[in-house]
Batch of 2 targets.
Target 1
Amino acid sequence: MSVRLPHLLEVTDSGLYCAAGGFYVDPWRRVERAVITHAHADHARPGCGRYLCAAPGKTVLRTRMGGNATIDAVRYGAPTTINGVTVSLHPAGHVLGSAQVRIEHRGEIWVATGDYKLQADPTCAGFEPVACDVLITESTFGLPVYRWPDPALVAAEINAWWRANRDAGRTSVILAYALGKAQRLAALVDPEIGPIVAHGAVMKLVEAYRASGVKLPPIDRVPPRARRVGNGRALVIAPPSVLGGSWLKLFGETSLAVASGWMTVRGIRRRRGVEQGFVVSDHADFPGLLAAVEASGARRVLVTHGFADVLARYLRDKGLDAAPLATRFTGETPPDAAGDEDDHDGDDPPAAVSDGDQADHAARLPP
Amino acid sequence: MKHFTALYWQLDAAPRTQDKLAALVAYFAAVTPADAACAVGVLCGARQLRAVSTALLRQWAAEETGLPGWLVEDAYAHVGDLAETLALLLPDAASADAAPRAGLAEMIATTIHAIRDAEEARKREVVTATWRRLAPRERIVWHKLLTGGLRVGVSRTLVARALAELAGVEPAVMTHRLMGVAGGPLDADGFARLLAPETAADDRRPYPFFLAAAVDQPDPAAVATELGPVEAWQAEWKWDGMRAQIVRRGDDVTLWSRGEELVNGAFPEIVAAAALLPPGTVLDGELLAVGRRGPAGGLALLGFAALSKRAGRRTAPKQILTEIPAVFVAYDLVEHGGIDLRPQPLLHRRRVLEAVVPVCFSAALAGPTDGGVLFRSPLVEADSWEALAVRRAESRSRGVEGLMLKRRSSVYGTGRTRGDWWKWKIEPLEIDAVLLYAQAGHGRRAGLHSDYTLGVWDGDKLVTIAKAYSGLADTEIVEIDRIVRTTTLERHGPVRICRPTLVMQLAFEGVAASTRHKSGVAVRFPRIVRWRRDKTPAEAGTLADLRRMLAQFS
């Protein structure tokens, strides 16, 4: 048996834990010290003693964690020390303030990517590869069928759809996660076509984005107790949770679309029961995942969140030392449960499994 | 190809029938008659021939993309549609948008028909060259054409409406004109004839089949309440065969399945016998497979499974004609002396039918040697609903599915109009079975574990008896999918072996001995009635229960 270096990060019941530094990365339970990659509900939970996040994401995290949370923010790339372990946060390109966590201790460097994308996004800093010994990467879209089209082409598709609806007097409703995707869409479309209207949940984050210095086109809020909104010209951006409720009735005749990486697959789009699916994702596509792994130069890759088994096996086929990292999340994220590609607005992560047999299984790192 | 691809995706996305109709009309108006003719065939479900096997296609795609075979399979299991999976995996064609496009007809001729009988190397050459000039969405449509699997989510009625609008004729006239389209290829001239303002009717076409609806409540009291006095109704056995029309016009015979395919080749003895009918006769009835029960026994019905071995063939070899003899049992006369009898009441049509087809069918005397192959469907006589219910109870032992009830005054309608024709099927057999394996579904259920293999107890072991798909609500399937993922014991490719926790109430039409399932029995038409959340696997049914049913009904 070869001698192994101690793990800088390991999976515990409360999440990814750095024993040397006594802190967790994106814990899924209340813990004393949490380093947060980004403010999505499956990565940032309220109730922790102290949070550390990247400076551009502080306002957004505050919106999510509440006014009383203790949040420390550091500039991207600036090292900080937690119990003698050096920690720095680096742009992940996922949403505003999203970060990869770089951990250095006794000459060993680990990076946990959190969620990330390589595509350009006007609403957040672009992904920067970070050299490391061990990389923990997400794999939400870790199948080669997921390859994102050029965002400019998708923008043109969305604009054409909106314009056609406007000309037919139908309101265009696009369902997207309230944090990140919604703002990115607002920045992507052509505001000359008509007014952009946002659901309250989206609006809260729009304000947080603006307060953080992100430029967004004019966006109207839906007035409280409104009975009828717009005249069929607007583009409405709303979280998927409005489906099935009465809120959509405010807009009269609508055309429904979903913006998500899952919309690549026709069967998933049809199951969502919407007319239009636009492929806009805040995660890396398959080539993006491979590029990020390569750019890290890691000698060992642990894969989590999504098609972990598949991506790990493919990396092994290519000669890398790679293994799936079992977490609280199941191997594949069934798109139905996911709603959007990130989580829903509720507290449950997509496809959370009941505790039980999964828990012991999750408590070990693969050998 | 560009136009047709656009149409395919428009039809796929449009939720409103009006939008689908508009897309169809615009398409037919925009393309050449040759392309339109091809499209009509494809949209109406004309039989497509597979030019390349899906196994070869996967292999070439793996080699083209440099991906390992297992990853292509994993991707397929996730996407649930091979044509789409491959289209998504293949590298983007650099010049796909700029490349000039062949029309649908030319595309089919040069890249599909031309390679059907070619050497493998030649096939591959054409396939990879075509990949390089098609955009991903075009590839999906083309793959489906290439492998003979293109289905479009649009009804024939809607295609007929669109063409009727273009031709300026009644939709019913167009439906009739389209009847034969599935039977053979349509060319540009054929398409022009479809659109002709007034054609001399192509007199080989069958009539649109009139369909029966299932009774809402199968118990006799409810049927009596729903249908009124029994005297107003004609009852017949509901045969377990294949619905068909014999069209005897001019100097030949055409035999049409309900899927509107020409099946002359599969049933030459029926066609030969029908040639003796007077010209201008159309019979609606059922093709049945009959066999001899034991070396000296009488004839017995073999059921749909046996018949389908014949029905799929373009020509039936001699051996199968003797192994699976077929008969045609007529239950309606739709045309007589060249006159459309559909507006006449059933009572009248039946009287004329008795003269045209004098021999009544009974399994005991039927047979290719001793009684001809053309029969009339016998009536099931009873003077009350209760008495009729007693006759209905004989169904399973007779090898029929129940009773057909037709109002004596009914006209021969179109489609499935409720009110005059009813199916009063016998209730299915049922057993509670345990979910043992699960597999991801296709299409709308891609990536969701929705196909289940179920088993019952044989002593202290669970043995598989059936694979079942339907019967659960989408929300239940999503819930079961999560349970499947968390109770998986082993994975074999796309199949997951699960810890037995889920019990399903399984309905089926019959039991037969089988070598395919470990249990030694197979159930016919299994489907899930409901998820028994109230039962544990220990409470599920046993193999002994099924063997008892087998002994009782066969």
Target 2
Amino acid sequence: MPTALTDPALRAAVEHFLYEEAELLDTWRLEEWGALFTEDAISHVPALDDPGRDPTQSVFLVADDLIRIRSRVRQLLGDTAWAENPRSQTRRLITNVRIVSVEGDAIRVTANFMVHRCRMERISTFVGQYQYRLLRDGSSFKIAERKAILAQDTLRSQGIMSIIV
Amino acid sequence: MDTASPLGRSSAQALFHEDEQQGIFRFSPRVYSDPELFQREQRRIFDRSWLYAGHESEVPKPGDFLTRRVGGRPVLIVRGSDGQIRLFHNSCRHRGAMVCRHPSGNAKNFQCFYHYWSYDNQGRLIGVPGRDAYGPGFKAEELGLYEVRAQNYRGWLFACFSRETESLELYLAEARGYLDMILDQDEDGSTILPGTHEYSMHANWKMLMENTVDIYHLNSTHSRFMHDYLPKVLGLKPPDPRSANQGAHSPKALGNGHAVIEYRKFSGIADEAKRARWEAKFGKERATRMLDYTRTLVLFPNTLYIEQRRVIRTCFPLAADHAEITAWPLMPSVDDPEVRKQRLDIYLSFLGPAGHATPDDVEVMELIQKNCATLPEDAFIECSRGMLRDNPQPSDELQMRAFWRRWRELVAQ
């Protein structure tokens, strides 16, 4: 008997959702990406030297709520996000998808990522773990929490992180 | 003198063109790209200047330590069991390996794993396995970790790798008064929060020193921040580009290459509760400047403080065309949680590798760098804005010229 954590149908639905999300980001369909979030959603990239804290106690790399997610999307789709104009090419590999807990409609999921970015002859890679809290939304999900925990101690090798990781 | 080097042509005259009458200040793009000038900077600037190394709040308890590169050198900053903060070269006196390999922590002793020589947290050599193999000339008391000359200015720890350089207080010149005006605002002291931004750019380090005090570029380079984040997230009117110029306070050269821009706040944390107290404590003029104006301070060579965003930022060259940038959030030690939240948002929304401004700054600096080494021999970078004005404005380039004049004195002459 599959438990909620190993239910193949749930796993397939979660994986499908994460792959679709990655595709939206890689194809710069950022407005559709922004629409995946709940009204009280957060999207965080925590501090590299202190990933366990909350964003009121340390300076994160990204600490967006929905209004900030939408601003980031508008900026990146506009003409004056110079660091992404012309835009980067990105491709995301999402693996090791694990359903960590299921409580009612809320599902906690972790997944490993590798985000490849290429722009102006330079290639950089961001690697880490996503931690999601997804809420069931009909046959799909909404994102209530999205944390990208980078598995690196500094961003010296990439320089900056102007894309959504 | 390097007469035989290609720098024969990089004399002050060849690198800089200054005409006080015509209001012209220009320099060769080679100041950003010439590897020989980069070497000279290492010797004449980074080997001799006072460099920001850390903050005492990062090592609050005896035994607290952190390791980082300062001026390119691996340094161990540690508060000894005696309560004193010391800076050491992070290098064993036996064969030279780094004795501490952790970014931070608390330790009584540091042991080099190569042969297990160990040091206490005051830098003294306390353990040498097989000590009997050494003769009478081997004196443990002479083999403590190499201490770095350091001074603590109101919590800011500075290092200097030369014994000949003047004291920090003299070195800071008029910048000291501005640092005081900034630090006086944190009546219960200041604290570095976790969340150091450590990133880099493929551009010359000096560009960041200029860029950080460049008001002129805000409306163009940071258009997306000004016209989206400010109004649509924070509900603030984007500042009139001219309003930064409406303060009575000009950009100022502060001696030794230090400079400041000081302008009226267009956003920030309301501090009205402090006004009466500060007027009594500091006088009306100074209290007004502390409350209604904001400053960005350049401490030559490579330390920046942006008061509005509460960031201490350093930029150190790895090569002429590659620099590492480190930014620390300096917050009041005692802070209202709601205000702290706003401060962090003001910091993060603009600054950092994923902020809405820093990536665009890095982009433009890297675009400059791509041209520096390849422009015609007589090409120049323009740095003349406001040169003939009686009252220079923050959007002028006086603050950059102050930096360059000192740089020219040290490197190009």
